[in-house]
Amino acid sequence: MNGKFPQHFLWGGAVAANQVEGAYQADGKGLSTSDLQPQGIFGAITPRTAGDSGIKDVAIDFYHRYPEDIALFAEMGFKCLRTSIAWTRIFPQGDEETPNEAGLAFYDRLFDEMAKYGIQPLITLSHYEMPYGLVKHYGGWGDRRTIDFFERYARTVFERYKHKVKHWLTFNEINMSLHAPFTGVGLPQESDKSAVYQAIHHQLVASARAVKACHEIVPEGKIGNMLLGGILYPLSCKPEDLLETQRQNRDWLFFGDVQARGYYPAYMQRFFRENGIQVAISEEDRQTLRETIDFISFSYYMSGCVTADPAQYETARGNILDMVPNPHLASSEWGWQIDPLGLRYLLNVLYDRYQKPLFIVENGLGAKDRVEADGSIHDDYRINYLNDHLVQVAEAIDDGVEVMGYTSWGPIDLVSASKAEMSKRYGFIHVDRDDAGNGSLERRRKKSFYWYRDVIHSNGASLKTRS
Ligand code: BG6
Asked: Fewest CB within 10 angstroms: 17, 29, 144, 427, which?
């Protein structure tokens, strides 16, 4: 793989505030939607009561242990770390006029620590959470006023960190609101499609406003969107399967189309009409949407298949989507189908479609790890998964795709989003904590830690094409 990755390729890892920080009420932080879903993004919405607890309340205690963790990332040679700002640390209820200084100060400390090692932050403004206050008092993204609250938050953090953070993302996996509306847009799970698309529209407008604000405030800043890259293949070459696949891929590409091109694609008019979906879009909104992102970022874990006749097939479940299994692929312990070639394909699809730089901001294998008697962890399955995907990234770069960087998901074990499990581990660094919250939180390097360090140090030359 020698020479395929560009010289300034941003190698690193990605985490999210609500899956690592813990300290869920520290220093004035307000409750977020994630705090109300202790069982994960599909779990029941649970009001918090005095004395209760959930695994995310402590998570891996990154809020207090970040210096140790950043030092470990630096030891692997990270050039970049993706994390999110917890909106509720800055605006605890969401609608305050002035930000919470203690929350702002935390991220100053975090970014300063990263700067010590030359690790660039890649910051998501909203990763699967929003202030619960905005849900309770305004109905989340269903209400236009949330756009203004978000813009105030975005402008606040751009001003504060403009000299420390140059790469920003707006909403994590913005397309997942179709499947998990509470997590995505703060609406009840059973909301009808019109309500969800209206809330999504508000979020798209808010995203464009953040892009404008970033361009105004952050010198040399770049801001991208973030898509769940759920690429789908036709199960057969039957024309009906192909058309249905195009339709289903448009369900998620729609978000990228609006954010990268600056307007609603033509195919959505028919989709809205035939599904009885009404979305109020003002002329001013249309103007706002014209402020487009600088780059496309996305997560990639698995691909799936589509048939025009789904009743005949069992579905394979990812954390968000149900897909028809591909008979040619193996699956992870969680049933996610492993498809490294799909990453090369997806990179080419997105580059052909948008001609904007791409950033792979999540990719990884959730697996159970065994700690040996001597404390070592031999996670060859993880190494193989990541190696094979990175080989395909190199191929896509060779195809001519402009790839800015790669941040693997969960470089340190964290709480999983879908079911709030610790046992589903992604890390190069093991954290001693189980699903019940027991454990010392001690950090331990896995075999993959040394493997990834070599990949970064060799700028990808150590990757191997395996048969
Ligand atoms: C992505 C999310 O969907 O997948 C992450 O952006 C999440 O927050 C990751 O953790 C993996 O999913 P899970 O459910 O295994 O944590």
From this structure: 144
